[in-house]
């Protein structure tokens, strides 16, 4: 006992403290932490000093203090400026906003606009990317080369240059709605009017019976779900296909259609844009601002090219044996793609796709170049008006971080669902 | 002659063309008939449009398509075989009934687009805006009498680039020993470029004195500024990114979570916010009275941003190095620094070259964002040119020219990366 512990004791005493990894670990981390803390204290000390000289005294006050500003309750004097009246107009306001509203409301408008651009952009760029990625692998040489050219050109030029191009050389170069009495806009079938003030197109509008029809649609979904549930049990019981998806869709459409025709007034109608009597703009339909069009179009074209490459790589990563096995079973091309290739490619595609979606949302901050009022552009205006650089940049960064976290949390959850459960 | 005949497929041995099989595979399903009708409608629409817009090209394309299609169809029906050049055309363009119609649509569209494009770019007067302002687009408002300095800087970078390619290239193994010199030169290049372009040795009160008088960075601009920002940001962010990646893998939690926090924070926000922070908050963070050149602020923003992304790429490489490599290195008595420097990093970095180059291409493209915060890079100068009354209508030309420059730069980098990959044998060893 003593013989075996003696050499260990002996060894232990001979290690000097500066070679003992346990001591070193603590030491290194302590030095690092002290360095970081000192560095940040220095930075923020400078910042507070500089802000004092600039006459911004927000940070001399406590962070938490409940006050009444313009009839609103402000929790922190640091962010009190958000409650003063903004005093600027916003081009595109999906939620109600006037120039008397506080900065906070303007920020909310910006956040809603960013979410809107992000959602539309993600959906459209996924569609474009998947189509182009599949076209890239087409046996048709022309189709594949055209897809390649699109991908290479778009991926190798900056998004900002593309946005400027679409906006200034594309949308603003469109003709005016009318020159004198004559209508000079480009009119596509629909009718879709393309003018330098925006694109007007027919749009779906509700009627007094829309609410009642919505009840029918809810009922249709419930019934379709029931049919799907029953058929699934039956299919499992009888071990053969009863065309579950067909019957589910049929049920849904049948109930929705009954509602459509039973109601006295058609629940939805298509509204055509009509040139306004004043000669400026349109009445009815949907008019999309050139700023929004350029931004969404640019983002979709750009992100679509990246998604196409991801989709191509994902499909190519599915082993060739899978294709051959599918052919041996006698599946058609479309069936093979839908049932064999895409589900397996999806597992490879989702992680890089997540980062593309994040990029799209982050790139939407370039809207400031085409003056579309999303979060970044509105924050820039607020920064210029109030001079509160620190607070505004913190708010913007936290907002984008929140967007990123939400998107990646959602896609990570989805990723977990589609990944193979390995034994 | 006889030999060729015997190697060619014998037409007579082929089974005859099976028309019912062809119908089955090409036409006999509801989906196929519907797509066929859609394709026919699309083709009628585009050919009618084409005949209205540009009858000559459209006719040529359609006739050529019909001749080749006819020849292939004849050969298939007659001999059930197409060979030679015709076969090459068949497998690429006339893949199936539907494929042929898709090709027709694309060919007509492509013919119209190419004709319009060629006419567009060969109408020279429209490029006047680019030609007249070429110098401005290249070097900004850099003094005209000192043009030799940007040229010298460009030459320096080009020569260094070519020399590096040679040193890593297949020319001669004896050049390999200069690799360290090359790396040293690249690391020193921000300073060398600074000396050439900004100047050195001029006294404070006489900026023009001496052979290298001072040229304020406010006068820098155009492609030169774009390249300076990219080159310096790339060179400085690389070691920083590697250190962040190593820090993220560190066994010490304090260091690890500091690096994780930094990387995730930067990756979660748009580049524009980082640039805004560098532009508006950096001056606040420095001691009162100390001002930093706007260009340096911008470059700092790019370095901070790029390092975080680079760290993630390098981390991928570090994770790909097998554990056995660490164990073997420790077993032969290397310490942590030696293991990292000699064993782990070379393997990790080699594995992620494509990702790193992709990241640098992204950085090069992202330099265009400085146009938003008012630094006169290529794009910003282009916008300034468009601000002149006489060039206001030349939006497309200026942006196309700028896009072309970026395209050449980015494609060049990705070409060089593919070469480097084959040279280093990525994916082989």
Describe the structure.
A 4-stranded antiparallel β-sheet of chain A has the order 5-6-7-12. A two-stranded antiparallel sheet of chain A has the order 1-2. Chain A is 63% helix and 9% strand. Chain A is globular. Chain A has 12 helices and 12 strands. The longest helix of chain A has 34 residues. The N terminus of chain A is likely disordered. The radius of gyration of chain B is 30 Å and the shape is globular. Chain B contains 19 helices and no strands.
Features:
heterodimer; A: 423 residues; MetI-like fold; two-stranded antiparallel sheet; 12 helices; globular; B: 429 residues; mainly alpha; 19 helices; disordered N terminus
The general outline of chain A is: globular
Multimeric state: heterodimer
Number of helices of chain A: 12
CATH class of the domain at 219-395 in chain B: Mainly Alpha
Largest sheet of chain A: 4 strands, antiparallel
Task: Identify the CATH class of the largest domain in chain A.
Answer: Mainly Alpha
- Percent helix of chain B, as a range, is over 70%
Shape of chain B: globular
By CATH, the architecture of the largest domain in chain A is named: Orthogonal Bundle
Give the helices and strands of chain B as they follow along the chain: HHHHHHHHHHHHHHHHHHH
Radius of gyration of chain B equals 30 Å
């Amino acid at each position: 006992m003593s013989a075996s512990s003696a050499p260990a004791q002996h060894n232990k005493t001979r290690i000097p403290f500066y070679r003992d990894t346990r001591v070193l670990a603590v030491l290194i981390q302590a030095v690092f932490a002290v360095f970081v803390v000192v560095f940040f204290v220095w930075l923020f000390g400078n910042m507070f000093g500089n802000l004092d000289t600039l006459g911004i005294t927000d940070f001399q006050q406590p962070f938490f203090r409940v006050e009444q500003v313009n009839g609103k309750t402000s929790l922190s004097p640091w962010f009190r400026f958000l409650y003063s009246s903004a005093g600027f107009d916003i081009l595109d306001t999906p939620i109600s906003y006037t120039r008397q509203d506080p900065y906070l409301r303007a920020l909310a408008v910006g956040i809603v606009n960013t979410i809107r651009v992000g959602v539309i952009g993600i959906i459209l760029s996924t569609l474009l990317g998947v189509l182009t990625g599949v076209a890239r692998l087409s046996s048709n040489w022309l189709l594949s080369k055209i897809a390649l050219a699109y991908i290479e050109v778009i991926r190798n030029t900056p998004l900002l240059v593309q946005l400027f191009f679409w906006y200034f050389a594309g949308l603003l170069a469109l003709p005016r709605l009318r020159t004198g009495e004559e209508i000079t806009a480009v009119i596509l079938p629909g009718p879709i009017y393309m003018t330098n003030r925006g694109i007007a197109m027919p749009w779906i509008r509700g009627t007094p019976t829309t609410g009642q029809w919505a009840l029918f649609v809810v009922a249709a979904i419930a019934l379709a779900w029931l049919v799907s549930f029953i058929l699934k049990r039956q299919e499992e019981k009888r071990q053969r296909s009863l065309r579950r998806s067909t019957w589910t869709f049929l049920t849904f459409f049948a109930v929705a259609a009954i509602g459509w025709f039973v109601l006295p007034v058609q629940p939805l109608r298509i509204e055509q844009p009509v040139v306004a009597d004043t000669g400026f703009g349109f009445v009815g339909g949907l008019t999309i601002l050139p700023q929004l069009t350029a931004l969404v179009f640019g983002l979709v074209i750009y992100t679509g090219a990246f998604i196409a490459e991801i989709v191509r790589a994902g499909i190519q990563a599915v082993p060739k044996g899978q294709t051959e096995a599918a052919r041996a079973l006698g599946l058609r091309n479309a069936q093979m793609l839908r049932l064999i290739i895409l589900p397996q490619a999806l597992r490879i595609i989702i992680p890089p796709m997540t980062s593309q979606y994040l990029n799209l949302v982050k790139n939407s901050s370039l809207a400031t170049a085409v003056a579309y009022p999303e979060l970044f552009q509105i924050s820039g205006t607020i920064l210029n008006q109030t001079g509160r650089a620190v607070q505004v940049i913190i708010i913007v960064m936290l907002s984008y971080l929140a967007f990123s976290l939400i998107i990646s949390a959602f896609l990570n959850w989805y990723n977990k669902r589609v990944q193979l459960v390995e034994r | 002659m006889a030999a060729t005949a015997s190697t060619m497929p014998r037409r007579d041995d082929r089974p005859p063309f099976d028309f019912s099989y062809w119908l089955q595979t090409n036409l006999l399903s509801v989906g196929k008939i519907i797509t066929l009708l859609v394709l026919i409608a699309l083709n009628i629409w585009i050919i009618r449009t084409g005949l209205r817009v540009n009858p000559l090209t459209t006719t040529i394309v359609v006739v050529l398509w019909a001749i080749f299609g006819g020849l292939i169809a004849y050969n298939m029906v007659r001999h059930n075989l197409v060979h030679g050049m015709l076969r090459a055309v068949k497998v690429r363009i006339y893949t199936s009934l539907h494929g042929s119609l898709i090709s027709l649509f694309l060919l007509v569209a492509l013919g119209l687009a190419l004709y319009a494009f060629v006419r567009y770019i060969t109408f020279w007067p429209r490029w006047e805006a680019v030609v007249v302002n070429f110098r401005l687009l290249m070097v900004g408002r850099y003094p005209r009498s000192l043009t030799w300095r940007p040229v010298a800087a460009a030459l320096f970078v080009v020569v260094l680039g070519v020399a590096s390619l040679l040193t890593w290239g297949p020319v001669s193994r004896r050049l390999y020993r200069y690799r360290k010199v090359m790396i040293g030169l690249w690391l020193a290049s921000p300073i060398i470029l600074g000396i050439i372009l900004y100047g050195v040795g001029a006294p404070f009160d006489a900026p023009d004195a001496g052979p290298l008088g001072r040229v304020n960075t406010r006068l820098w601009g155009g492609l030169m500024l774009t390249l300076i920002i990219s080159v310096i940001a790339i060179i400085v962010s690389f070691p920083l990114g590697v250190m962040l990646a190593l820090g993220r893998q560190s066994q010490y939690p304090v260091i690890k979570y500091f690096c994780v926090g930094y990387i995730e924070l930067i990756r979660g926000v748009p580049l524009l916010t980082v640039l805004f922070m560098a532009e508006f908050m950096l001056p606040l963070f420095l001691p009162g009275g100390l001002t930093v050149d706007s260009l340096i602020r911008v470059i700092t923003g790019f370095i901070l941003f790029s390092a975080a992304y680079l760290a993630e790429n390098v981390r991928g490489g570090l994770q790909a190095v097998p554990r056995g490599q660490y164990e073997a290195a420790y077993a032969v008595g290397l310490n942590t620094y030696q293991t990292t420097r000699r064993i782990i990093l070379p393997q990790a970095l080699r594995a992620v070259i494509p990702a790193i180059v992709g990241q640098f291409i992204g950085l090069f493209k992202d330099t265009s964002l400085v146009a938003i915060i008012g630094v006169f890079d290529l794009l910003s100068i282009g916008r300034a040119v468009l601000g002149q009354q006489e060039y206001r209508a030349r939006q497309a030309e200026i942006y196309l020219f700028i896009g072309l420059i970026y395209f050449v730069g980015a494609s060049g980098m990705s070409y060089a990366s593919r070469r480097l990959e084959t040279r280093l044998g990525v994916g082989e060893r």
